[in-house]
Write a structure and sequence with these properties.
The longest helix is centred in the last third of the chain and has 40 residues, at 287-326. 70% of the residues lie in helices and 0% in strands. It is mainly α.
């Protein structure tokens, strides 16, 4: 009997990766409000306050879904913005690697597409407040301007990924040390983290939810939490890709075990990110100044990471040439037998 040869990855690995993406998306949607609650609790502790529940964000979302929706005339568009942002947020939850990468040949998006979806979701989250027509809409317009300029500012970071998809790009970073060859990508991860750290604070978030009530308000809150968690996870993946599992070259049981280890490491990274975000919330800055610092920091860190990467490229090429010179391939004897 002849064994059938399948072109590309095995169907078992394809089904396993698809199942892991569904589990990952559901896990991130459940963890996103908890991460926001932990960040708010740590920020309250640093400010000397107490009594703020860690599950407060989840309780608020559940309370909003139980309330009746109060839509006045012309406010159906605000609900559509919140629902569209939630759809993009859930899609990004499935696209951003959390505890494992996908196998070669599995459809994977590029870093530009993921960042574009996250920026688009952030813009949709700011539109309800921007369309109010009141004085508070100025803060939303400032946030829209910052989000609109964010994607062009991220160009140096996007150039680091080249034309590879996100899974292949992170697989190339898997073996790099964060202290040596992977240092430029740590800077890129810090730049992505600045997007979240200097984003809209709680007061601006409360203003953006002003036109929404009931389930529309709860869906807006859940969408904002998912987008924030995706930014944090993407930054952690750029800074330390070694925590992600590599499928394909191992038994399925070992891969599942590495996925569990990756999930534990992801929770640890979220704890560090919550502490850093809580410290950033202590900086009281006007909205316009925070947008300028946000864009400037992301641009400078991304440009620095890009320059350091190009500085390492000639050294890597020279080392490859030196290796070829010191270890040449054996020459083929073309001379015939002597008479």
């Amino acid at each position: 009997m002849t064994q059938e040869v399948i072109d590309g990855p095995a169907w078992g690995w394809l089904a396993g990766c698809a199942f892991m993406l569904l589990v990952q998306a559901a896990l991130m949607v459940l963890v996103a409000p908890l991460f926001t609650g932990v960040t708010a609790w740590v920020s309250a502790v640093l400010e000397g306050q107490s009594g703020l529940p860690v599950m407060g964000r989840w309780l608020d979302i559940q309370h909003q879904f139980r309330r009746p929706g109060l839509r006045s005339e012309g406010e159906g568009l605000n609900a559509l913005f919140g629902f569209s942002a939630f759809v993009l947020g859930v899609l990004c939850c499935a696209l951003v690697p959390v505890f494992t990468l996908t196998i070669a040949g599995f459809p994977a998006p590029g870093l530009l597409l993921v960042c574009g979806l996250l920026v688009g979701a952030s813009v949709l989250l700011s539109l309800p407040q921007a369309l109010q027509g009141h004085f508070s809409a100025s803060q939303a317009c400032i946030a829209l301007l910052g989000d609109g300029l964010l994607l062009p500012v991220l160009v140096p970071i996007l150039l680091l990924a080249g034309t590879h998809d996100l899974a292949a790009f992170l697989a190339g970073l898997h073996a790099l040390s964060p202290l040596t060859d992977g240092a430029p990508y740590v800077l890129a991860g810090v730049a992505l983290f600045v997007v979240v750290a200097l984003g809209p604070d709680g007061r601006e978030t409360a203003g953006a939810m002003a036109p929404l009530a009931g389930p529309d308000r709860g869906l807006w809150l859940l969408a904002a939490d998912c987008v924030r968690l995706c930014w944090v996870t993407l930054a952690a993946d750029m800074a330390w890709a070694a925590s992600l599992s590599m499928p394909g070259g191992m038994p399925a049981g070992q891969w599942v075990f590495q996925c569990l280890v990756g999930a534990v490491l992801w929770v640890c990274k979220l704890g560090v990110a919550a502490l850093l975000l809580a410290g950033a919330r202590l900086l009281v800055l006007p909205a316009t100044r925070r947008v300028r610092i946000r864009l400037g920091a992301v641009f400078l860190l991304g440009l620095l990471a890009w320059q350091v990467t190009w500085a390492h490229a000639p050294r890597q090429a020279q080392s490859m040439n030196d290796t070829q010179l010191t270890d040449p391939s054996p020459a083929t004897d073309t001379t015939g037998p002597t008479s």
